[in-house]
Amino acid sequence: MAMRTIVAATMLFTAAPALAAQTPRPGDFTIRDFRFHDGSVLPQLRQHYTTLGDPKNPVVLVLHGTGGNGSGMLNAGFGGELFGPGQPLDASRYFIILPDSIGAGQSSKPSDGLRMKFPRYTYDDMVAAQYRLLTEGLHIHHLRLVTGNSMGGMMTWTWAEAFPDFMDAAVPLASQPTAMAARNWMLRRMLIETIKADPAWQGGDYKTQPPMLKIAQVTFSIATSGGTLAWQDRAPTRASADAIVDAQLAAPENSDANDTIYQFDASRDFDAAPGLARVKAWVLAVNSADDERNPNETGTTVNTIRRLAHGSLYLIPASAQTRGHGTTGRAAFWKDKLKDWLASVPPAR
Fold first, then answer.
1. Angle 151-162/123-132 helices, nearest 10 degrees?
2. Which of 98, 277, 63, 93 has the alpha carbon at shortest distance from 170?
3. Whole-angstrom Cα distance, residue 214 to residue 245?
4. CA 140 – CA 26 distance, rounded (Å)
5. Which residue among 136, 206, 212, 262 is least packed, with the fewest CB closer than 10 Å?
6. In the chain, which residues fall in CATH 1.10.1740?
């Protein structure tokens, strides 16, 4: 899947010889004896990544969501709206780095062989590995921008607090810097419990993917993404609703049960609220008004932004065209705001 994404992205970004510098380039960096937050050690941690552009240009770090990977961010709706000529993060003007987080894509993950004996990582571990990739593997010591969607948004908050002098700007998408809780965590917990309750899971030692993996993923996706207005528009009758469910259940299963458990469990201790005072970067939080996982009605993000020296919130209005939590994955909704805002952010160096 990742290789097909890279091939498709290569075709997208190399439609003309002038765009050769924007060809996606995959790479791997091995971190030896990587120590996780709980003291467990992995002798060799593979950190896979994809880059666009010239390393001499200002650097942008782009972080994917749960279950995704770096090259997946090159899709038409996201990278196709951001990284092309004249776009806000034009890869001829920026050096774009898209890592596969621990547990995802081609980076080290449970399905490599350790299964449920793989270290029980968190977002802090992911960010620590990304930092070492940048500083030790790519010899980069400052970012113009760090941004990410969903899980990537939460890691963007983590980056801004853990390494406050490392970036000029941070744009967390589809996230809020408060404790993982409420419906967001409840449904993550239910996804995990659903997979584990399947007898075919066998404590993680299955030979084929347990059937409840697909059920759990489709349930979580429909319940926490898509947008209320959009779902009503797409599925106004029982027949049309059933057709969508049937199509999702029939789709090929490309994920792994243990990987999925770890990916969703990694959010368990996320809470950026206590560390907000450490943030020095200019922050533009981008959320959608119909985000099911980060409901605007709570006022959480608005109240948080007020605590930042240079913070602002861009809230995308809900409509039949938005997709709830999935809205920010369509950069057309917010790329113009990003372009204008980033132009106003002074370089820290």
1. 60
2. 63
3. 11
4. 17
5. 136
6. 182-265
For 147: left if phi > 0, alpha if psi spans -120 to 50, otherwise beta; the answer is: beta
Is 2-181+266-344 a domain of CATH 3.40.50.1820? yes
Q: What is the pLDDT of residues 67-124, one digit of tens each?
A: 999 999 999 999 999 999 999 999 999 999 999 999 999 999 999 999 999 999 999 9
The pLDDT, as a whole number, for residue 18 is 38
Token reading at 214 = 């697909």
Judge whether 282 and 345 are in contact, CB under 8 Å: yes
Which residues are CB-contacts of 325 (< 8 A; sequence separation ≥ 6)? 150, 174, 224, 225, 226, 288, 291, 292, 293, 294
Residue 312 corresponds to which tokens in the numbers above?
A: 């602002």
The single-letter DSSP state of residue 294 is S
Task: For residue 347, count CB atoms less than 10 angstroms from its CB and return exposed for 0-12, middle for 13-18, buried for 19 or more.
Answer: exposed
Question: Range(s) for CATH 3.40.50.1820 in the chain?
Answer: 2-181+266-344
